[in-house]
Each structure stands twice: as C-alpha cells, then as structure tokens.
Write a structure and sequence with these properties.
This protein is mainly alpha-helical. It is built from 8 helices and 3 strands, in the order αααααααββαβ. It has helices spanning 5-35, 38-64, 79-107, 117-145, 148-177, 181-209, 216-227, 261-278; strands spanning 234-243, 246-255, 282-290.
Length: 293
Amino acid sequence: MALSPETRLNLSASLLSVAVASALVLAKLWALGSTGSLAVAASLADSAMDLMVSLGALAAILYAAKPADEDHAFGHSSVEDLVALGQALFILISAGVIATAATQRLLAPEAASLSDEGAGMAVMGFSIALTLALVLWQGRVARRTGNKVVAADRLHYLGDLLPNIGAILSLWASSRFGLTAIDSVVALGAAALLALGALRIGREAWNALMDRRADPEIIAGIEAIARDWPGVRGFHDVKTRVAGSRVFVQIHIELDGDQPLRAAHDIGAGLRRAILAAYPMADVIVHKDVARD
C-alpha cells in the first residue's frame, strides 16, 4: 500500500508519540519505586494511558489509510472511533483506581511518607521536556495534514503537562516542608482531569459511531460554497456524517435542465473540488437535479 506524504507525516508523529510515551512509562516506573509518590503514580498511569492511546492512534492511522474496498465502500476511518471508545473506558478505570488510592491515603490515620523526592522531581522534569518536544512536532504535522487524530493526541499530551508539574510541586512540598498530603490532593486532581478527558473522548467517539452530523460550522461553510457557485440555482438535502477523521458529505444541487450534460458535470465537479479544497478531510458526493422553473 503506497502511503501519501500526509499519511507518512501523520505516521511520523504517531511513532514519535509511541517512543516518547514508552520512555516516560519506564522513567516514571523507576521514579514511583524510588519515591512512593501517588502524584508520580497518577502521572505514570497517565503516561501508560498515553502509550495505549498512541498505539491505538498508530494502528488507526495505518488502518484508516487503507483505500475503500468491496466490503468497506466508504473506507476504514471508523476504526479511529472504535479505538477512541476503548481508550476512553481504559482512562476512566485508571482515574478511578488513582482516586481510590489517593482517598485512602488521605483518610489513613498516619501520614504517608515519601522518599528520594529529588530523583522524582528530576524524572518529572525530564517528562515535561520530552512532552514539549513531542507536542511541537505534532503541532507542525497537524497544521500541514489537518489530521484530527494527530491534533487530538497533541491536545492530550498538552493536558499531561499539568499533572507532571503538579507531581513536581507535591514532591518539592514533601521534601521542603514535609507536606505529604499535597501528594494525594494532586493525585485526586489528576484523576479528575483524566476522567473529564475520557468522557469527552468517549462522547465524541460515540457520536461518530452513531453517524452524528458534522460540526455546524462545516455544514454552513459547505452551504456557503454551494450557494455562491456559478451555475448552481439552488441546493437541498445536505447530509453529513463523521467517521474518524473523515467527514462524509452528500449534497443535491439544482441546475438548468436545458444545458449540455458536460456543462452540468463540470459545474458539479468544480463544486466538489471547491468543497475538498476548503475541507480536505471530506468525502463529497454531489447529486445533480433539474431546477424547477
């Protein structure tokens, strides 16, 4: 299967995401063993989830790039939504485990003790540096290709910076002032962020699997292009649905019934090209109807 330049760029961002997540999981496993910090544990769970998300995104990009075939006439982009739904469930479970452990530690009669906070802070600083490098590259790729999977992965990694910074603050407070309870509070906050992110990802994936229409701004933009297109006297039955990073569009345009077939074809083909230029992620079908006098 020959890959387009855009797909290769998307794959480069996804492979880098997998490599960074793997490195962070290993580093944070060591930091957790050294410090016993729940904030580090929350960050570790977040990185483990990142690794699963990144692996799922890599598989989704590869599978979604497959051309349409006899069994999948509209392509394979829905796999992105199936992967996202599974990821959302995993994130919710991780958030629940972290929140439970943090609550138990807060309610324990004796304060938990942390150790080797300096090493933990060094690992978290390393995590922040790697994450920043990754989101810079993902941002560049997303701007060039418009791929929603890469853009969503980038947004998720940007959200990871807050738990990492919180883990550093909790380790510093424990080392400097002996305030170990802050560690559990930070872990609870990280768990809440994880749960909110999971609900958002799950809702978007569910909507796509249920053939929810495209964003109203996209629909309005398509209608504006059709309304002003030369030769189009009107349009109706604009239907859209989202599958993964693709937006499927059907539109009926009303044309002069007395013009040559080639002229009608050229009007429809030109309109389709204009919509694709404005929305490269779209798959557009233009139906031609005779305008009523």
